[in-house]
Amino acid sequence: MTSPSDTTTRPRIRLKPKANARALRHGFPWVYSNELVTDRRTRKLAPGTLAVLEDEAMRPLGLVAVNPDSKIIARMLDRDPDAEICQSWFAQRITHALELREQLYDAPFYRLIHAEADGLPGVIIDRFGDTCVVQPNAAWADTHVEALAAALAEVTGCSNILKNASGRTRGLEGLDDQNAVLCGEAPSAPLPVVMNGATYMADLTGGQKTGLFFDQRENHGVAARLVKPGAKVLDVFSHVGGFGLAMLAGGAEAATCVDGSAAALELAKAGAEASGKQDLLTTRQGDAFDVLAALAEEGETFDVVICDPPAFAPSKPALEAGLRAYERVAKLAAPLVAPGGYLGLCSCSHAAELTKFRNSSARGIGRAGRRGQLLHTGYAGPDHPQMPQLAESGYLKAVFFRLD
């Protein structure tokens, strides 16, 4: 009987002759289903199975995780086809990632693992002090989640490790949506997180994604620097007040946060109170497009307006509709910006690459009868490193305009 760690009995899968083996050798991490020889044996492999990937000449390319039910049928885990995926393997990769974050940040609040870019395909880990939230968004990671959690506790010393199973990606992998506590216990209340001089309240069990969006940290800072003393600002699609609270910390006199979620706006209020800015924050619940139109009818203007919507173009088939939605956001938001004020527009759609998103934003501003100078283009912070071979890892874009 072979050991579960025996690497000699692993199945072997092979690329089709026209598949781009060179890209894989140069670091591209995925094999699509139309690039692989999918015979009956391959189709019967359980999602998450470890296998040796070969080129058409049967030369090994590395160790991959296979999911016959996914469009991404194989994910590269290690260039060594004999690598053992165990606690020590996870610990090495987490240690490498942690060294970067500890160099970048004074406090343990950051994205610790950014999937492929940190060598753990499909895995997201956000750290909130003594608690880590893990999103195993690929079948192989779900299969090895106990070893992953053990390594995470070993390397970071965190007492509490939570599994967040929400999100579209797990559904594409055929995975369930059941959250779990992998180690320790879940916090009984939202946790305070200080960034850019503001305090945010992160709900790790009932909030969106892992509880807070660390990716916008750098862009929050840019928005705060655009604020003049006494400024009036608007944060649309605000979630827990990301831009609004940062701009209050930057000296704004009044901030309005708009979101469809009442729970998120309550967290924004709690963050304002924790920041000592509760008297300066107003919230408005409702559909963002409707609220933008209503504010224009009311004759409201703001010194800084930021719009950070959800992914309108989560995939290539949704791209054109998504670009029209980004254009509409810009068209509705631009009239609310006072002359000489600033408009920040964001996209977290990896399918909408920067040029197309920027052009859609500029068209919307023009259709609103405004002209703008493009001041700054922002991306996710350095705790969200990009994998150069994988465009999807650089999903976040933010463009800041000064309007006439």
TrEMBL record:
Keywords: Cytoplasm, Methyltransferase, S-adenosyl-L-methionine, Transferase
One Gene Ontology molecular-function label: RNA binding
Main subcellular location: cytoplasm
SUPFAM superfamilies: PUA domain-like, S-adenosyl-L-methionine-dependent methyltransferases
RlmI-like PUA domain sequence ranges: 13-79
PROSITE patterns assigned to the protein according to its UniProt record, in alphabetical order: PUA
GO CC terms: cytoplasm
Location in or out of the cell: Cytoplasm
Residue ranges of every copy of the S-adenosylmethionine-dependent methyltransferase domain listed in the record: 182-357
Entry's family note: Belongs to the methyltransferase superfamily. RlmI family.
Name of this chain's protein: Methyltransferase domain-containing protein
Natural source organism: Tritonibacter aquimaris
